[in-house]
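thread: overnight batch results

M.L. [08:02]
morning all. the overnight job finished for the chain we discussed friday. pasting input first so we're all looking at the same thing
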Amino acid sequence: MPGYIVTCKDDATEDQIKAAKQHALDQGGKITHEYTLIKGFAHGRPPLSEKSLLSSANFTLSLLPIRLARRIQALRNLPYIVVSNPNISRIYNNYLHSLSILLPYWHAASQGHPIAELQDEIEFTNVLAELVATHTDTIPILAKGFLECRRYISPAEVTRFLDEHLRARIGTRLVGEQHIALHFSSQPHFAPEDSPTPCPEHPSYIGVIDTALKPSLTIDSCAGFVADICELRYGSRPQIYVDGEPDTTFAFVPMHLEYIVTELLKNAFRATVESRAREPVVVTIAPEPPLKEQPGGAPLIKQPNTDRGQFRSDAIKPLDDNAPGVTIRIRDRGGGISPDVLPNIWSYSFTTFSDDDGFPGSGGNTGGDGLSAIATASTGGSSIAGLGYGLPLSRAYAEYFGGGIAVQSLYGWGTDVYLRLKGVGNLN
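M.L. [08:03]
and the structure it wrote out:
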């Protein structure tokens, strides 16, 4: 069935919206709706009541089979010789298995038998946790598969597929992990210590989202981790200095921030050590003011319209497009990026490893990448250092809620990386 994207302006009349939808239907399309975080927050702050927990489970169930089916279709659209690769075939079969497990729940719900008992919700959450664990190593396995198939598929095709797949994967995991975290932090089975996903008891958390995330704490934690690895490999520990406004807080997904900061600091620390620079890596935190304010000065949160046409994308929308965020600058004196390398830093690279090199996680040599031991366990991924995935994947996480990453290199001197993160919004 063809997919049509109907986009309407904020000032579109109801008649215009209705006409646009009808046009999509007339062309054989199907009207679906975007998933906004406002829907994910609609169940309230944990601990949730039994009714709210069941509502969250059914809401999650309504989304995941569709998202998994789209990933299966995307894999089927790859050349047959690529999909027949053992690693890519493994990922394809994982998605088929996951969909087959969820379909009985989905069919029951579509026939008027949703998840209505607490025991059913517990079983569904256990299944969900198993599926999340199954797809933990999707990225490195895909990377190895495409590496082995590089003679059969062009880099442009690989980049196009991975851009879509990685962004869809971010959203799918967020949907699943959000309910898992709500489950383990809610009544009547409050057990955050048993959750397979981060599930802090802090009141600022709603599922996996921290509504008062402090970037400076994440930076300190990630810097210590990367510095330890750096010292182990190189015998040197770069210094880091955090300035700006370290007390800044905003609403974001801590796991996403941890991955991005770890990757960016890894690059900065490695450049600093290999260039023998003595200057510290300087991280500046600059909060952004809200774009819209009420007369009293409080941020104005515009609730998104949940019925404005079809959204075929798997992207998850934030609570508020105008939510304030934060910009983080990471500055190093590591000599900058070579002009012949700079144009390619956002491309998925599959040439760092030779056929004789070990693959990340296999215990082999990692093509000389001194920080290949860094594993992004906090985001459910394995080490993929040396494959060129770090910056593109970091950008995918940053752009997911409307942020981005910009790199400014002064070759022979150093590099500035600007990480802009949009907050997901506030919920009263």
